[in-house]
Amino acid sequence: MPRRINIAIIDTPVSVEKVSQEISDPTMGGEVLFFGSVRNTNSGKPVRGIYYDCFEPLAKKVLMEISEEVQKEYGEQLNISIFHSTGYLKAGQISVGIGVGTHHREEAFQACRLIIDQIKTRAPIWKKEYYEDGTYEWLGGNLLEPGQTDRESVFRQRDTWEVPRFPIDRN
Amino acid sequence: MNDKRIVSVLFFGFLREYSHEGKLRLEVPQGTTVTELRSLLVSEVRKRFPAFSKQLLLERAAIGSHDTVLKEEDKIQTDMELAVLPPVCGG
Question: Is A87 left (phi over 0), alpha (psi -120 to 50) or beta?
């Protein structure tokens, strides 16, 4: 049976607790949480905050499609929770939160990574960055194209990842 | 029979600044495709904002409905609320 998927577009900063609660499940052995927040500098320029613009109906649809694609890839036992903020956030506040719960850690890490990468390239969300000197700039991004929601595109992107190798200390 | 129809187009990202309250209502001929709609939008924005300097970005922007990013050959329906979607950068 497919597990839980929770999608939320909110007009406040993301709550760590809420993202975590949505995937909480005693049958799960691995839970991975990712949070993205507003950096206080960009290319050396002090940042005051970011205004997030969002086409909400399509964004919800895209986030759900991404979640379902990831469930198909890593197994329907995944619990997935995605929160994304809209409106103005100050530097340091959390704009996006992703939680993945599953039986094993490896698929939880991979699924979480895949979700945030897909959000960045597919979700209809835009950033207007406000600087400490009073200026602002709309940030550039990824061109949207029809058909980006097919699973092929997800796999192509995943295949380009470099898997980090860590030495194993067996002592 | 009236072969024109009114469509409502929302503007997002930097394009918001080239619309009034992030929205534009446009009369388009029946059977207008996404490609044709985008050309009409470019003309309309240039007419309203003669200093508009980012035409290339508007010409490359996707057009979306509530459900999907539309294909170039898709025909515009009257009951659609559409959106111009410049390059995205969520997260």
Answer: left
Which of B80, B82, B89 to probe by mutation at the A interface, max A CB count within 10 Å? B89
Residue written as tokens 């922007």?
B61
Q: What is the pLDDT of residue A100?
A: 97
Beta bridge partners of A53: A126
Q: Mutate which of A144, A145, A148, A150 to test chain B, going by most B C-beta atoms within 10 A? A: A144
Residues ≥6 apart with Cβ < 8 Å to A52: A84, A85, A86, A87, A88, A89, A95, A125, A126, A127, B90
Is ipTM > 0.85 here?
yes
Contact B88 A124 (CB under 8 A): yes
Separation in Å, CA of A138 to nearest CA in chain B: 6
**Helix crossing, A151-159 with A105-122: angle to 10°?**
110
Which of helix, strand or coil describes residue B49? coil
Q: Which residues neighbour A92 within 8 Å (Cβ) at sequence distance 6 or greater?
A: A37, A38, A40
Q: Is the pLDDT of residue A22 over 60?
A: yes
> What rounded mean pLDDT belongs to chain A?
88
Among candidate residues A34, A171, A61, the one with its CA nearest the CA of residue A124? A61
Going by C-alpha positions, the residue among B8, B5, B69, B72 that lies closest to residue B34 is B72
Q: Say which of A55, A96, A140 has its CB closest to residue B85.
A: A55
Residue A75 pLDDT exceeds 60: yes
- What's the pTM value of the predicted model, to 2 decimals? 0.89
Kindly state the tokens that stand for A104: 């094993």
pLDDT (mean) for B12-34: 92
Whole-number percent of chain A with pLDDT over 70: 85
